[in-house]
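Reverse transcriptase Ty1/copia-type domain-containing protein
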Amino acid sequence: MFDEMKALEKNETWELVDLPPGKQPVGCKWVFTIKQTPRERWRGIKPVLWRRATHKHMESTMKRPLHRWKMNSVRTLMSCAVNLDWDIYQMDVKNAFLHGDLQEEVYMHIPPGFESSQTGGKVLRLHRSLYGLKQSPRAWFDRFRQSMLKRGYVQSNADHTLFYKHSNSKVAILIVYVDDTVITGDDSTEVANLKHHLAQEFEVKDLGKLRYFLGIEVSRGSKGIFLSQRKYILDLLKETGMLGCRPAATPIEQNHRLSSDAGTPVDRERYQRLVGRLIYLSHTRPDIAFAVSVVSQYMHDPKSAHMEAVKRILRYLKGCLGRGLLYTRQGDLQVECYTDADWAGSLDDRRSTSGYCAFVGGNLVSWRSKKQGVV
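C-alpha cells:
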C-alpha cells in the first residue's frame, strides 16, 4: 500500500484541501489482487486504491461508447507475426487510470490506513481518475491515444485499440487493452523507440516477449505460435466443483433438442455467469463456439436442461484442457472465409443458426455461431 500511495502522490493524483461548503466527499477502499503466472506460481499481491463512486457520479455517462479491444485483431496479428517472422513484445502500464485527467470537481476521504493528525478534517481533491470511476477508462484511453498520435501513429478505423506506423516500407503495430499493450512489427528500430517513448510518457514495465495476455497463454516454438487458456479452464472447473468430473466426448449432444421450456427454473445469475465465462473461453476454443451459442440463447430464463448443457461443455473441456489455436507459417497472408447454416434448426421459432470462420495466412482468426434474427 505504501508503494501504491507513493505512486499516487508522485503522479499528483490529488491535493489535500479543506472541504468546501456544500460539497460531499466520496469514500475509497483498498482492493488486493493476487498476481499469478499461467502455471499458478505466486508473483505477489497488488494493492489498488478504488474510489467509491456515488450514484450521482456514476450516472454521468459519456456521449461516445468506450473503445473495446477485439480478439479478432489479436489473432490476426498473431498470424501476421508468425508468417512474417515478427517478434511480439508486451508492456504493462502501472496505475494506468491515474494518467487520465479528471474533468469534474471531486473530493475524496483520506485512504484507509493513512489518516493522521495532519489530515484531520481535510479531504483530497482529485486531479486524476481512480479505479472504480466510470469515466476512468475513457480518460486513460484518451490520454494514451493522444500520446500515440503525437508519435506519428495512426488509429485503426476497424479497431480503435490498434495503432500502426509505416516508415521506410516497414511497420510497427501496437494493441492496448486498459494497461496491457502488445507491440510487434518488422521495424525493430521503431519498436525500440516506441517502448522508450512509452517508458518516458508513462510508468511502464517491460515484460519482454509475449507470454501471457488477458488470461491467454502464448507460447512460441519452431512450429509456430500456440494460444491456449488451460489455466482459465482449470480455474473454471475448480469454481464449479467439476475438477473431478467424467469427461464428455463432445461439447453438445448431436441433434440436441433444447427448447425454452426444457425443465425447471435454475439460478439465473449463476447460469449467466457460467455462460459468460464460456463465451470468453471461446476466444481460443472454436470447438465450443456452437455449443456456447446454443446455451447463451436461454440467458433470460434458464432451465435445468440448459444448465445440464452448460455442464456438458465443462465436462468436454475437462477432457481436452490443453487444446487451443496453433498459428503456423504458410508463406502468405491470403484471406479465406467459409459459412454455413443449419436451416430452421430451432425448436422454439424455427429460425436458423448461421456460422462462419475466416482465415488469414492459413490460420483461423475469426469465427462465430449465431441464431438468425428472422425466419
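Residues 136-150 form the longest helix (15 residues).
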